[in-house]
Every structure is written in C-alpha cells, then in structure tokens.
Design brief:
This protein has 102 residues and is mainly alpha-helical. 64% of the residues lie in helices and 0% in strands. The chain has three helices and no strands.
C-alpha cells in the first residue's frame, strides 16, 4: 500500500480562516473546512486501524484473522484514494478559478 502522510494534509484544518480578514461571512460549524477536517481524520483513523490490524496479525494475535486485516488494509487504501481524488478535484477547481479573466 502506498502510504503518504496524512499529517501534512490535516494541517490545512489548523490554518486560520482567510475569509475572516476579507469580510466574507464564515460558514459556521457546518462549513466545508469542518467536513474536510472530519474526512481527513476518518482516513487517518482507517489507516491507523489497518496498520494495527496488520501488526496484530503478524504477531499471531488470535483475535485478528487474515481476512479482517486485509479488509482493514483495503478499506484504508480505498478511503485514501478517494481523498486524493477529492484533493485533485479541488486543485483543478482552484486552477480554473485562478485562470478566470476579471
């Protein structure tokens, strides 16, 4: 599994909102930044669970089967791939907005 650090991406949620300084109203508790932060945390949790399950299986823990560990790894992989696709779409939208003629 190609594993990249989620920590660098999750720092985006810790940045100060730019819209506060420009007079744009904040979306509040149910905003996009919160949803993105929750999605990042969810992907990170899935990767940690998969790593833990794989380690426990390798240590011959009787509570963890091969099937459970493989499902956890594949779930983490799929969730990470979907997160990367969302990031790619956001970057594409950002580039389109930046190339607009004003």
């Amino acid at each position: 599994m190609d594993k990249l650090s989620i920590d660098a991406i999750s720092r985006v949620g810790n940045l100060a909102p730019l819209e506060m300084g420009r007079g744009i109203k904040s979306a509040g508790a149910g905003g996009f930044a919160d949803a993105l932060g929750k999605a990042l945390a969810s992907v990170n949790d899935a990767q940690l669970r998969a790593e833990s399950a794989a380690q426990r299986f390798q240590l011959n823990d009787p509570e963890v089967t091969l099937e459970e560990s493989m499902i956890a790894v594949q779930t983490a992989n799929i969730s990470f791939q979907s997160l990367v696709q969302v990031r790619n779409r956001l970057l594409s939208a950002y580039h389109e907005i930046m190339n607009l003629q004003v």
